[in-house]
Amino acid sequence: MARAADLLADYNAKRDFKQTPEPAGKVSKAAGNRFIVQKHDATRLHFDLRLEIDGVLKSWAVTKGPSANPEDKRLAVRTEDHPMSYADFEGVIPKGAYGGGTVMLWDSGSWAPIAGKSAHDIEEGHLHFTLDGQRMKGEWLLVRMKPRPGEKRENWLLRKIADRWAGGTDDLVGRALTSVLSDRTMAQIAAGEEGLKPDLGAKPASTAKPASKRRSKGTPPKFRALQLATLVDAVPAGHDWIHEIKYDGYRAAVAAAGSDVRIYTRNGLDWTDKFAPLVAHIAALDLPPCLIDGEIVAFDANGNPDFSALQAVLKRGKGAQDAKTELQFFAFDLIEQDGKSLTTLGNLERKERLEALLHDAAPPIAVADHVIGAGERLYAAMCSAGQEGIISKRAESGYAGKRSTNWVKVKCTRRQEFVIVGWNPSRAKGRPFASLLLAQHEGDALVYKGNVGTGFSADGMDDLARTFAKLARKTAPLPVEGAAARHAHWLKPELVAEIAFAEFTAGGAVRHASFLGLRGDKAARDVTPEVARPAPADHDVVTITSRDRVIFPEAKKTKGDLADYYAAVAPVMVMHAARRPISLVRCPQGRAKACFFQKHDSGSFGEHVHHISIREKDGGHEDYLYVEDAAGLLACVQMGTIEFHGWGSQIAAVEHPDRMVFDLDPDEGLDFADVRKAALDIRGHLADMGLVSFAMLTGGKGVHVVVPLDPGHSWDAHKAFARHFAEALSMAEPDRFVATMSKAKRKGRIFIDWLRNQRGSTAVMPYSARARPHAPVAVPIGWEALAEAKSASRYTIDDSSLLLERAARSDLQGWGFAAQALPQY
């Protein structure tokens, strides 16, 4: 205890406990393995990692916050030890006091050195440990850096070890904006401690009331028919497909609303009890009412999804899982959320919304990865790894709830389901049968498809034999001739088995078959032969004429080049630009000639560009343009369009905006670094209010800060919030920001353009080309990548392949989607 008291002397010496609400540094009698992380908005925002060792909290200030990406090495500055009572501290340290600023309890849990290591490894300059917190999990490493000459502070590096909890760069701090203790935002904590009445028009923006929390109100959605994939003989080509791993497990639909979670099989059977450990993990996420499509898998000894391993786990029954056999749920589609069906949205948009919904998820719950285009490489990798194959989905297609060619599967090996219709006895001692007789339904008939005699474990054979005894029948349930039926014992055709085999013989029987397991999630009546079809061809959408016309003279890029760019990026652009009223920048003779805005059309764009009647200010109505797919984008390009600008609302709810945009427009004399810092600071102010935001390089000089919102408020409220936010920042930092369009007042400042958030105004859409020299494009960017960006026009229409690759990276998954309400102010 005396040693602990000595350790806290530095802590006590730095604080005046008559001024600060922090607890005094008293020695704790309790000993444990607690860890906490506190978000601390002091001189600069940082995250304090604290580990309980020797009765105190060993502490490091992590300047950028922890990252789940093993490639990120975070600077962690060693600070004074803190008392154990500090583990529950949350509040405001007065300005002028040591560490003055708002403190949030951002994470909490337990920690332990990995096997063979000790907490006292800190003295040697390293610590390899595991965390089991609400947000930080798995293995981590702290390593002390060699000090520079004259350097007094002790610098360490914090890094995530690559394991099942490793993830993207922005996942941890970018979306986790509330306290694990009080569920408050930084703004709430600050306002509550200081007793402030928020007045965004006269106070800094962070005093606004936070966005309302989205908690689980309602009941889980009902089961609905799942989308099924068609077997094809090759990977579909083109950029309009996304490709995922075909997991070797049980298809499952998860219906959730907070702690009420149901898990259904592909046929709608309620198997919640069978997957009780998974249900507990999903319930802990406190999801809003939603219906999620995915696959439940177990892993073999090599860490690969394995159907036989899944069967073994289920055989032991619920509650029998352990760390080595824990089931995992890979979510790959979001069918319904908050009572709203999402089935009309494209596959890629639903996937991005799923990423946003499950941003707090950690293993055993995960979102299945995907690639856009380049499915052949993924297929080759899966086959080389001995996996089952891949699933390919048209990026723009909706969720049909039936089998279609918009979802296709390409298998590395032949595997199908068969009905077990009988068994042949074995001459081997202790072996209950030699082989199983298999069949499939073809029309109204049950047709014999050969035998399987391998792939059984001893315990598995005994279990099957006991099951067969209950299904025995005297006569064959189907016609079988010759030796195959001579010694057979017949069964009621009710059991479904998963069988791997090399091929079908000329007579229709499986060759070199191996038993993988029973399929309790599939009905025998639904078992039919799978015959691979040819892979779907690309859609022939729109013919582009005058492809050689030069549109960007400086870059010597043509109309054909522009059309090819839009065709390539359509999967990632459509989910942001589709179903919104749009305005087009048309330059029929090229960007250096006459260009004009167009938002109305009498029908000259053709069948792929649609119209919606919208009330004008004078009470009349006009037809506005909107598109739904790649064909719509290309039809606009055919008519000379370069840029696409969209409303902040969708055609389904024109009067209820769902996207707020702050366009940071710098004065001519400012560097892009000033704009970059402004965007990062604005992100922080929005985060203080509990709002997740996203960054986009505009392709010009500036950055857009994009805030997705639930469409439950009016345009008046939308505009008023944006205006007050911008004005509050300009009042708080008048030397940096201005909230008026006046060029004279903008001298040396950044104009926070909030005017794009009023009814009828538009903002450039993500991935839109710009009518500027060298054909730049507007590009979403992760916050950490923005911090390193050198220009707002880094990418051009030549970069379509790179942009598609970037879009699938972890820091851009779920970009532009978040379920959050407009804050009150």
UniProtKB/TrEMBL annotation:
ATP-dependent DNA ligase family profile domain location is 238-411
Record flagged with keyword Nuclease: yes
Q: Which GO terms describe its molecular function?
A: ligase activity
- CC cofactor: Mn(2+)
**Pfam families linked:** DNA_ligase_A_C, DNA_ligase_A_M, LigD_N, LigD_Prim-Pol
Instruction: Supply the alphabetized keyword list.
Output: ATP-binding, DNA damage, DNA recombination, DNA repair, DNA-binding, DNA-directed DNA polymerase, Exonuclease, Hydrolase, Ligase, Manganese, Metal-binding, Multifunctional enzyme, Nuclease, Nucleotide-binding, Nucleotidyltransferase, Transferase
Q: Which InterPro entries match?
A: DNA_ligase_ATP-dep_C, DNA_ligase_ATP-dep_cent, LigD_ligase_dom, LigD_PE_domain, LigD_pol_dom, NA-bd_OB-fold, NHEJ_ligase_prk, NHEJ_LigD
Please report the stretch or stretches of sequence annotated as the DNA ligase D 3'-phosphoesterase domain.
38-144
Q: DNA ligase ATP-dependent C-terminal domain location, by residue?
A: 430-522
Residues of the region (Disordered) are 192-219
Q: Does the keyword Transit peptide apply?
A: no
What Enzyme Commission number(s) apply to this enzyme?
A: 6.5.1.1
Reaction catalyzed: ATP + (deoxyribonucleotide)n-3'-hydroxyl + 5'-phospho-(deoxyribonucleotide)m = (deoxyribonucleotide)n+m + AMP + diphosphate
- Name the SUPFAM superfamilies for this protein: DNA ligase/mRNA capping enzyme, catalytic domain, Nucleic acid-binding proteins
CDD domains xrefs: Adenylation_DNA_ligase_LigD_LigC (cd07906), OBF_DNA_ligase_LigD (cd07971), PaeLigD_Pol_like (cd04862)
Give start and end of each DNA ligase D polymerase domain: 558-801
Q: Which NCBIfam families match?
A: LigD_PE_dom, ligD_pol, NHEJ_ligase_lig, NHEJ_ligase_prk, PRK05972.1
- What is the recorded name of this protein? DNA ligase (ATP)
State the species of origin: Blastomonas fulva
